[in-house]
Write a structure and sequence with these properties.
The protein has two domains: about 240 residues, Nucleotidyltransferase, domain 5; about 220 residues, ATPase, nucleotide binding domain (Nucleotidyltransferase, domain 5, 2-Layer Sandwich). With about 500 residues, the chain is of the alpha+beta class. The strands form eight sheets. A seven-stranded mixed beta sheet has the order 18-19-17-16-22-23-24. It has 18 helices and 24 strands. β16 and β17 form a beta hairpin.
Length: about 500
C-alpha cells in the first residue's frame, strides 16, 4: 500500500494528514505555532516556526500511523495565502512574514491603484489591490524597512518555504501565485507589465506550476528532519482555499463551498476567468488546470469566535481546547434566532468582502440589560454568518451557484452552527467526514502527481462523498432575513465613526 502526505500550514498550526491509496484517511495531526501582532492591525509569523512545526507534524503523523517514510509515495503542500516571505541569497528570511490578515499596507494599495489605474489592475490581474496581497506589502517594505527590502533575493509563500526546506527548490503554484497581485490569473503566468510598473524584479519570483506537478524531491536534510525518504516527490500544491476546495470536491463550475477557519471563505469554481467589475472578489486560478475560482472573504470568522472565547471566556473552563468551543455552542443554543435583537459585526481585523476597509471595526449593536452570555455568543456566530451571506450574495450575483453548498472548517463541526448557517444562508448544506479539507486536498494533489489518479476530478469522484445534510428552516430563514437587512446597513452607518476611532488609536 502507498500513502500520500498532505501538509497544511494554517494560521494557527501545521497540520499533517496521511491518505492511503485505498482512499482512507489514516491519521492527521497538528503542531501549533504563534501569531504576533506587534502593532494594531499588524500580523506576523516567523517562517522558522512553520518549518519546526511542519517537520514535527510529519514525524508525528508517521509515528502515530506506523507508516514508514519509504511508504509515502508523494507529498502535497498547502498553507495560508498572501503572506510576504522574503528570502535572502542564502535562503534565509529577511524578516518575519507579513501575514494575509495584516492591514498595514492600505496606503500602498491606494498608491498602486492611482499609478496603474483600477481598470488596468483588473485587466492585468483580475483583482483590485488589497492590503492582504503581497505587492502592496512589498512597497510598504521598500518604504519603511529598506534594509530588509534590499536583502530580498526570492519571494515565496508559506507552503513554498516548507518546499524549500524539504527539497531545496524554489517554486510556487498558480493558485497561490495570484496572491502576489503580480499574476495574470487568466494566462496563469506572472504579469511582466505590472512588475515593470511597480519596479519589482522578475527574478525574485519563483516558477508558478500547476498544482499537481512535481516541484522537487526530498533531500537528505529534509528526510533527516521529517522521517520521509530522500527522493520522495513533492508536488506544487495549492493555496489553502483552493486546496480546501479540492478536498471538498469543489471542482466543477458552479459548485460552491463555505469554509470557516480563522477567516471565512465563500468559494465557487468557474470554467473560465471571471472577475468582479471593481475587483471586490478574489478571482484566482484554481488548483486544477483550465479552471478558475471566485472567493469572497470574511477576515475574522473563526477568529471572532476565538477572540470571544479568549476575551470573554466560557462559563466553565474545559480541559481541552475543542471543549471550550463545544461549551460556547451549547451557550449559543440557549438563545433564540436573532439573539433577541442583538447583532455583532465581525470586523475585528478590518474587512475584505464586501467592504474593502482595513479600518472597519467590530462590536455588538443593540445590547440591553436583558442580554446575557448566550445572547452574546450567539450574536457572534450569527454575525460571522451574516458576513458570509454578504460574500455569497456577491458571488451569486456574478456567477451562479448550483446545488447544495459544501461547508467545512470549524463552523461545520458544530450542529448548532451548521443550522445557523443553513438558516442565514437559506441553502441546503452538505458536510464531509474529513474536516481538514486543505490537508486532504494537498494529499489528493500528491496522489495525482504520483500518477495514482489521472487528474484531480477523478480523485474527487473516488474520494469525496458527503456524509451529512442540513436543511434550512423556513421560519428561521424568514426571521434571519429581517435581521440581515438591519445588519447590512450597519457598516455604512458606522463607517465614519470607525475611521475616526482608527485615527484616534493610531
Amino acid at each position: 500500500m502507498a500513502f500520500y502526505l498532505g501538509l497544511d500550514l494554517s494560521t494557527t498550526a501545521a497540520k499533517a494528514l496521511l491518505l492511503a491509496d485505498s482512499g482512507d484517511t489514516i491519521v492527521s495531526t497538528a503542531q501549533p505555532y504563534p501569531l504576533q501582532a506587534p502593532r494594531p492591525l499588524w500580523a506576523e509569523q516567523n517562517p522558522e516556526d512553520w518549518w519546526r512545526a511542519g517537520a514535527a507534524a510529519i514525524r508525528d503523523v508517521l509515528q502515530q500511523s506506523g507508516v514508514r517514510g519509504e511508504e509515502v509515495a508523494a507529498v502535497g503542500l498547502t498553507g495560508h495565502m498572501f503572506g510576504l516571505v522574503g528570502l535572502d541569497a542564502a535562503g534565509m528570511p529577511v524578516r518575519p512574514c507579513i501575514m494575509w490578515n495584516d492591514q498595514r499596507a492600505g496606503g500602498e494599495c491606494e498608491d498602486i491603484t492611482r499609478s496603474v489605474g483600477l481598470s488596468n489592475l483588473i485587466d492585468l490581474t483580475a483583482n483590485c489591490m488589497l492590503p492582504g496581497y503581497v505587492a502592496p506589502k512589498l512597497l510598504w517594505l521598500r518604504r519603511h524597512e529598506p534594509d530588509a527590502y534590499a536583502r530580498i533575493a526570492h519571494l515565496v509563500f508559506a507552503k513554498d518555504y516548507i518546499r524549500y526546506q524539504l527539497t531545496g527548490e524554489l517554486a510556487t503554484d498558480v493558485s497561490d501565485a495570484a496572491g502576489m497581485a503580480l499574476f495574470d490569473a487568466a494566462q496563469r503566468k506572472w504579469s511582466a507589465q505590472l512588475l515593470r510598473k511597480l519596479d519589482i524584479p522578475a527574478e525574485w519570483l519563483p516558477p508558478a506550476l500547476e498544482s499537481h506537478e512535481v516541484s522537487g524531491y526530498v533531500t537528505e536534510a529534509g528526510a533527516a528532519a521529517t522521517g520521509l525518504k530522500p527522493g520522495t516527490p513533492v508536488v506544487a500544491g495549492a493555496g489553502d482555499q483552493p486546496a480546501q476546495a479540492v478536498g471538498s470536491g469543489i471542482v466543477e463550475p458552479g459548485q460552491a463551498s463555505v469554509t470557516i477557519g480563522t477567516s471565512g471563505v465563500v468559494f465557487v469554481a468557474t470554467q473560465s476567468p471571471v472577475s468582479h467589475p471593481q475587483g471586490l472578489l478574489h478571482a484566482f486560478a484554481h488548483a486544477i488546470p483550465h479552471t478558475w475560482c471566485l472567493m469572497g472573504v470574511v477576515m475574522s470568522a473563526g477568529g471572532s469566535l476565538k477572540w470571544y472565547r479568549d476575551t470573554v471566556g466560557c462559563s466553565q473552563e474545559p480541559a481541552e481546547d475543542a471543549g471550550s468551543y463545544d461549551q460556547l455552542m451549547a451557550e449559543a443554543a440557549e438563545a433564540p434566532a436573532g439573539s433577541d435583537g442583538l447583532l455583532f459585526l465581525p470586523y475585528l481585523t478590518g474587512e475584505r468582502t464586501p467592504h474593502v476597509d482595513p479600518q472597519a471595526r467590530g462590536g455588538w449593536i443593540g445590547l440591553t440589560a436583558r442580554h446575557n452570555r448566550s445572547h452574546m455568543v450567539r450574536a457572534v456566530v450569527e454575525g460571522i454568518t451574516f458576513g458570509l451571506r454578504d460574500a455569497l450574495a456577491m458571488v451569486e450575483a456574478l456567477h451562479g451557484v448550483s446545488g447544495p453548498i459544501l461547508i467545512s472548517g470549524g463552523g461545520a463541526r458544530s450542529p448548532v452552527w451548521r443550522q445557523i448557517q443553513a438558516d442565514i444562508l437559506g441553502r441546503e448544506l452538505l458536510t464531509l467526514a474529513e474536516t481538514e479539507g486543505a490537508a486532504l486536498g494537498a494529499a489528493m494533489l500528491a496522489a495525482v502527481g504520483a500518477g495514482h489518479y489521472v487528474n484531480v476530478r477523478e480523485a474527487t469522484r473516488d474520494l469525496i462523498r458527503p456524509t451529512g445534510r442540513t436543511e434550512p428552516d423556513a421560519a428561521r430563514v424568514s426571521r434571519y432575513g429581517e435581521y440581515y437587512e438591519v445588519y447590512r446597513d450597519l457598516y455604512e452607518t458606522l463607517r465614519q465613526t470607525n475611521w475616526a476611532l482608527a485615527r484616534l488609536s493610531a
